[in-house]
Amino acid sequence: MKNIEISPVSRIEGHAKITVQVDDAGNVADAHFHVMEIRGFEKFLEGAAVEEAPRITPRICGICQTAHHLASAKATDMVFGLEIPETAQKLRELMLLGQYIHSHSLHFYFLGAPDLVMGPESDPAMRNVVGILKSNPDLAMMAIKTRKIGQAITGVVGGKPISPVTAIPGGQSRGITAEQQAELLSEAKNAINLIEQGVEVAKPLFAQYSEAIEALGPVESHFGALTNGGSIEFYDGPAKIIDKSGNQVYEFAAADYLDYIEEKVQPWSYLKFPYLKQIGFPEGNYRVGPLARLNVADSIPTEKASALYGEYKDQYGIAQNALLYHYARLIELMYAAERAVQLLEDDSITGTDLRQQLSEPLLTKEEAEASGETKRGVGMIEATRGILIHDYETDAGGFIKRANLIVSTGQNNLSMDIGVRETAKQMIHGEEVSEGLKNKLEMIVRAYDPCLSCATHAIDGSSPLQVDIYDSEGQLLKKHLL
């Protein structure tokens, strides 16, 4: 038995590897996607005042910070029983759209596109952002400008482009001025033009690599996404689960997610494996993110994104192929820019009714402990990578006793693992594996745009971390389990 290791998986957020076990006959016996990092934000939150959570959780990740900020804020709204005003909800949605524009343009053009623009088997020294800059500088500049617009929206609405701070229990701590509205509207309209140019470059690539789309990462699964009467939805709404044929299986509110989602641990990864509880593991595997959202949605309510969506659905229907996450991401990028324009053309976005205040003062920590009462808040939104859930249980004074985070990448974990394994079995025959073939296995993982900093948590504060100590000759001296 020979072990082939691809480490690290490149052009993703976080640290992971792929291992392939080849038997003596040269056939793949097994293969896995391994996540080796671990972070403890669920434990970090314990004991904190829940109103601080929207400021703590954005530090989980420098890319997904806005999604964590808003999911956390929605959870705190529920803890305190607050209904946010209309203008505050529009500002929060606009802030989230800023992240979509920033994150989707970053991932497609600089992390995913090199495989398509340069080719899966091209020189790895050029199969990256440097290659994009050299081979197609205009495309690279469009990507940079688009991402910058997304960051500008987040910075104005969220107070900071990285780790925003304005979403608070009951609404927003500040609004935007008419001048800021006009400036962001101009930027959002510019983003639409930039995205159109990028789409024209990208669409032919999906036809060019149709065989790779069919071959890489084969898996059939359920899909989950928020819904708004059948329309695509990022900020609010129940979660809808469909089967591989597109039939609805479940629909549930944020507070009820534990009745439908359960997590399992496997020995080859620190990243947990969520699945549909009532179906069981692994049959209850489901995927989230751009591919899932376009499978679940019946329509996209903006002109240009709707046209792209129609072409996509006519060609692929209920899409299962992992590489189509890239195509779906481009369509969502267009929708995010168009929806931002819609919000910014609405003058109520500059309204001053921004927050519902608490009707009664909070208990002190001592009073809360004496009462023994608990409260619960669950916030659920669509992060760029899929459904994100923040679940907090607090005492009567609002101090967090327990926190649970169900993160998008975890919900795609089983599909990434299956996709790597099945592709390896189809493509690897013999011990020699080319650089291009190794990259094709990485392409499966990259298609999901995994964010491993977001997704790795310790459920009870413990972690089976092992430190291996080697001498200068590479000999293993000691294994230490933390």
TrEMBL record:
Ni(2+) binds at residues 61, 64, 451. InterPro entries: Ni-dep_hyd_lsu (IPR001501), Ni-dep_hyd_lsu_Ni_BS (IPR018194), NiFe-Hase_large (IPR029014). Transmembrane segments: none annotated. Signal peptide: none annotated. Its cofactor is Ni(2+); Fe cation. Keywords: Iron, Magnesium, Metal-binding, Nickel, Oxidoreductase. Pfam families: NiFeSe_Hases. Fe cation binds at residues 64, 454. Gene3D superfamilies: Cytochrome-c3 Hydrogenase, chain B. Mg(2+) binds at residues 42, 405, 457. One of its GO terms (molecular function) is nickel cation binding. It comes from the Archaea. Its EC number is 1.12.99.-. Belongs to the [NiFe]/[NiFeSe] hydrogenase large subunit family. This is F420-non-reducing hydrogenase vhc subunit A. It comes from Methanobacterium formicicum. The gene is vhcA.
